[in-house]
Specification:
Largest sheet: 5 strands, antiparallel
Structural class: alpha+beta
Distance between the termini: 88 Å
Number of helices: 4
Helix content: 10-25%
Strand content: 25-35%
Number of strands: 11
Shape: elongated
CATH class of the largest domain: Mainly Beta
Strand order of the largest sheet: 3-6-11-8-9
Radius of gyration: 36 Å
Length: 242
C-alpha cells in the first residue's frame, strides 16, 4: 500500500464514521493524537492510488439477512399467483417477533419443521392447480338476419349492406378473457378498391378487412381481443360504399 499523508486517511476515516452516525459533521475537524483531521485540500488533492487506499478505511456495513416470507406474506403470495384462498400458511409454525414485528428477517428462522410444511403446502397447491375446474369456452352465434341493422335487407341466406352501414348485437360474455370474433362475409365489388369491413367492439374498431371473397365462396374474417365479463356491443360495418 502506498504511503499516504495522514490527513487524507484521517479525513476518510472521519467521513466513514460520520456516514455511520458515530459523530456529526462538525466532528470532521477534531484531532486524533497529534495529527489534525482536516480536508484533503491542505496537502493537495489525492491521486487514484491514494483514493483506493483510503476506500479500505471505510467500515464494513455488515450484511443483510435473507428474508423469508412470514405466514401472512406466504398466503398473499399464493393467492396472487394461483388464486388459492385456503391460506395454507395457517398450518405453519408461528412466526417469531422482533421489535414487535413478525416480518423482521433477523428473527424469522427456517426450522426443519417449517421446511416440511413448505413441501406439504407446495404439493397441495400444485395438485389444486392441475385439477381445478375451468369454465368451458363460450360460443355465441349471431345470424345477420336477427341482428340490429342500420341499412340493407335480407338477400337469400345473408344480409345485404348495400350502402355504408352496420349490423350489431349485444352479447353477454361470461368471464374476462381473450375472445375470437369471426365474421362470414363476401362482397360485391363495385369500385377500384375491394369492399372494406370493420369489426367493432363497443363502437371501437378492433380490426379492418379487405373483403375479396365473392358470394359463391364466402370467407371467414377473424380477430381476437381481451374482453371483460358482461354485455358488450359487437358490430360489423361496411365502410366504403361507391
Amino acid at each position: 500500500m502506498p504511503r499516504l499523508p495522514i490527513r487524507h486517511c484521517a479525513a476518510a476515516a472521519a467521513f466513514a464514521l460520520t456516514l455511520t452516525g458515530c459523530f456529526g459533521e462538525s466532528d470532521l475537524t477534531q484531532t486524533t493524537g497529534s495529527a489534525p483531521i482536516s480536508g484533503p485540500g491542505d496537502v493537495g488533492s489525492p491521486g487514484e492510488e491514494e483514493i483506493d487506499a483510503c476506500a479500505n478505511v471505510v467500515i464494513d456495513p455488515g450484511r443483510v439477512t435473507l428474508h423469508r416470507l412470514n405466514r401472512a406474506e406466504y398466503n398473499n403470495t399464493v393467492r396472487d399467483l394461483f388464486g388459492d384462498t385456503t391460506a395454507p400458511a395457517k398450518d405453519f409454525p408461528a412466526d417469531d417477533h422482533g421489535y414487535g414485528f413478525d416480518n423482521n428477517a433477523d428473527v424469522l428462522s427456517l426450522a426443519p419443521l417449517l421446511m416440511e410444511k413448505y413441501e406439504a403446502a407446495a404439493e397441495k397447491l400444485v395438485e389444486a392447480a392441475w385439477t381445478r375446474d375451468f369454465k368451458p369456452g363460450q360460443q355465441t352465434r349471431i345470424e345477420a338476419e336477427t341482428a340490429t341493422t342500420t341499412t340493407g335487407s335480407a338477400s337469400g341466406n345473408a344480409w345485404n349492406l348495400y350502402s355504408n352501414g352496420s349490423a350489431y348485437a349485444s352479447i353477454t360474455f361470461v368471464a374476462d378473457g381473450t375472445y375470437t370474433f369471426k365474421v362470414r362475409a363476401w362482397g360485391k365489388q363495385a369500385g377500384s378498391e375491394p369492399v372494406k369491413m370493420d369489426l367493432l367492439l363497443d363502437n371501437a374498431v378492433i380490426a379492418s378487412f379487405d373483403v375479396t371473397a365473392t358470394s359463391d365462396a364466402p370467407q371467414i374474417y377473424s380477430a381476437s381481443r381481451a374482453v371483460t365479463a358482461g354485455a358488450h356491443k359487437v358490430e360489423v360495418a361496411f365502410t366504403n360504399d361507391y
